Amino acid sequence: MRIIDLHPGYDQIIQHIAEMLVDSFNEHSPDAWPTMESALEEVGESFGEDRISRVAVDDSGTVMGWAGAIKTYDGNVWELHPLVVSANARGHSIGRTLVEDIENQVFERGGLTLWVGCDDEDGLTSVGGLDLYPNPLEHLSKIRNLAAHPFEFYQKLGFVIVGIMPDANGPGKPDIYLAKRISGREGRERERLRNRRNKRNKRKKLKSYLAGDFQLNCQSRTMAEPAN
Ligand SMILES: CC(C)(COP(=O)(O)OP(=O)(O)OC[C@H]1O[C@@H](n2cnc3c(N)ncnc32)[C@H](O)[C@@H]1OP(=O)(O)O)[C@@H](O)C(=O)NCCC(=O)NCCS
To answer: Separation of 212 CA from ligand 1 center, angstroms?
Structure first.
């Protein structure tokens, strides 16, 4: 698989992307791109200034996924929009690879933060279908994924939840905001090593705790045993 810049001349690829957008958002966000026309318009907008538009294609040129980003805050912050992986290619790290590619693109342009808005229009999370006022952040701090909502996909990629817009898509249909500090390939590698080290240390601590606990139990059992 290769990830390349999407160009306005790639008619066939653009058509595939538009079909993918309509199909993929139809179930959970039916108002996002209800028609091919609206989807083609979205792809067209991705060629604008201050935009990034990247497409993942396999060796035969079939579209596997598409990711874009929009420059905001003078380029300090970029919005990841949209992100979609072809339905039959999901679960094979294509989404992850596309987001990491966008991170690299943003890093090269001097961006510091990548953020994404993740709608919940049909109660896939515990913050959907509710009146979030007067304490939206309290609800958000206890968010649970009820049915494979993609906010967890972003968390796996190092994004953290930074906010929520109540009723963004109508009553009880919020938009969940996640963001990530951009550190490029090297930063991500450092992060990966740090996580691995932390996991190893936790395992070591648990092992030595369990070993200590076991010894303690043996000792207390010996002490408690009546002398013959
Ligand atoms: C969300 C989406 C982009 C994920 O793409 P993908 O290629 O299937 O994801 P990956 O295989 O790269 O997954 C990376 C990790 O996230 C996890 N993950 C993927 N989708 C997830 C979901 N919906 N909920 C929880 N975890 C998820 C994977 O299990 C994997 O975990 P691992 O690293 O522990 O193995 C894809 O499902 C999609 O296009 N959905 C429809 C459109 C959409 O929802 N876009 C996002 C709008 S905010």
So the answer is: 41
Domain count, the chain: 2
Q: How far apart are CA 67 and CA 166, in angstroms?
A: 25
Nearest to 95 by CA among 125, 62, 67, 61: 67
> What number is the average pLDDT over the span 16-38?
95
Q: What is the pTM of this model?
A: 0.87
For a ligand 1 pocket test, name from 151, 153, 156 the mutation site with the most ligand atoms within 8 angstroms of its C-beta: 153
Closest ligand 1 atom, residue 154 Cα: 16
Identify the domain containing residue 210 by its residue range.
185-228
Residues whose CB falls within 8 Å of the CB of residue 13, separated by 6 or more in sequence, listed in order: 6, 55, 57, 61, 63
**Helix and strand element counts for the chain (H, E):** 6, 7
Output the CA 52–ligand 1 centroid distance in Å. Answer: 21
Q: What is the pLDDT of residues 28-44, one digit of tens each?
A: 999 999 999 999 999 99
Nearest CA to ligand 1 atom 27: 153
Residues 126-169 have pLDDT tens digits of: 999 999 999 999 999 999 999 999 999 999 999 999 999 999 99
170/222 same-domain check: no
Average confidence (pLDDT) over 116-127: 97
Q: Is the CB–ligand 1 distance for residue 93 below 6 Å?
A: yes
